[in-house]
Amino acid sequence: xxxxxxxxxxxxxxxxxxxxxxxxxxxxxxxxxxxxxxxxxxxxxxxxxxxxxxxxxxxxxxxxxxxxxxxxxxxxxxxxxxxxxxxxxxxxxxxxxxxxxxxxxxxxxxxxxxxxxxxxxxxxxxxxxxxxxxxxxxxxxxxxxxxxxxxxxxxxxxxxxxxxxxxxxxxxxxxxxxxxxxxxxxxxxxxxxxxxxxxxxxxxxxxxxxxxxxxxxxxxxxxxxxxxxxxxxxxxxxxxxxxxxxxxxxxxxxxxxxxxxxxxxxxxxxxxxxxxxxxxxxxxxxxxxxxxxxxxxxxxxxxxxxxxxxxxxxxxxxxxxxxxxxxxxxxxxxxxxxxxxxxxxxxxxxxxxxxxxxxxxxxxxxxxxxxxxxxxxxxxxxxxxxxxxxxxxxxxxxxxxxxxxxxxxxxxxxxxxxxxxxxxxxxxxxxxxxxxxxxxxxxxxxxxxxxxxxxxxxxxxxxxxxxxxx
Length: 470
Hints:
- The protein is an alpha+beta fold.
- The protein has 17 helices and 18 strands.
- The strands form four sheets. Strands 2-1-6-5-4-3 form a six-stranded antiparallel sheet. The protein has a five-stranded mixed sheet with strand order 8-9-7-12-13, with helices on both faces.
- Helix 9 packs antiparallel against helix 10 (211-229).
């Protein structure tokens, strides 16, 4: 059966079956019966409006005077009458408009919780689900409030914890392995592809911006994979910043085209008006051409992924036999350890009018007497032009441009002053290299040295050599 035929003839039936299964799990004979007994409404979070409002008799009793005309009014009533089942807290903390908008901007598009309230002395349990989406009129939310009081007494949350990763909502490794092996067992005649995906330089997000931003990037990466590869795949968080994907029922050509399109997609997430870009190293192997055993295919995809990582990352590659012999010892060194061990400050910034700082190591923020990279970014306004002493800036930029125009290696050397966070003036030697990248355009890689410290090291080394030669 072709993918198109499945899409047109069977997908709708699968959705109905999934809905009926969910309704039965909650104690309703059909999805139609569940919807009849559930309240639903749409909300424009930007304009604070409610539309397509349907309230059951039980829910209507919460609004004795009139139906709410705004989302804020509705949420205030719900928060007053209902409490979150787990925390006992009010619902407006979770479902406030600004909170939902913030979640959507960080890659989250689904929120749910259980709530309780009392009617005539009896406790009613509600499952409140919210799906977020962006439309022409702004960010909207679709709510479904189900009465789950009659649900069988079973811990559905425990089952989810067993199968799903808590941060990203993807399958965890053990559950993912089980589903993939089950697929190969049931459909041995299908073509498929196994992908290993690693976030490039992920440690930079944690070190430079904090673990909160690292988590946001991981969730955004997970949502992009789900949205791009669709439900006809198994998507797994293998651990850390590594993901595994099974693309079901894809030929070699279909898999390569899909991976190529995903690679060329813009990968970014916006949080608090700051946009964070990220990229992936992707290796993949093919079933059954390159193997029929899942763990063997995963190992080959892993080899192909490391081949990409050894060749500048931000790319994709199919496994080839000659990759088995490649030397991987260089990858046993953690990039963060190497950068921290380099005897000098490293700075990477855009070679455009913004001169936005893209990366810096710990020696860089120590040079400016800052407590962290985040502290330095705030101090500098996230721009190279603000780390140079204002009296030196014009001369420095003129010298850099003049040197780039007169040499073929795109290298420059300049000296200037900086002002540290405590107000101290330091003299700096700057060696830069202009490089073009596909994702960021032209950027500068720069080594910065505290001249006084460098001269002390050279003087000490010279004295040592004199002693050795005497």
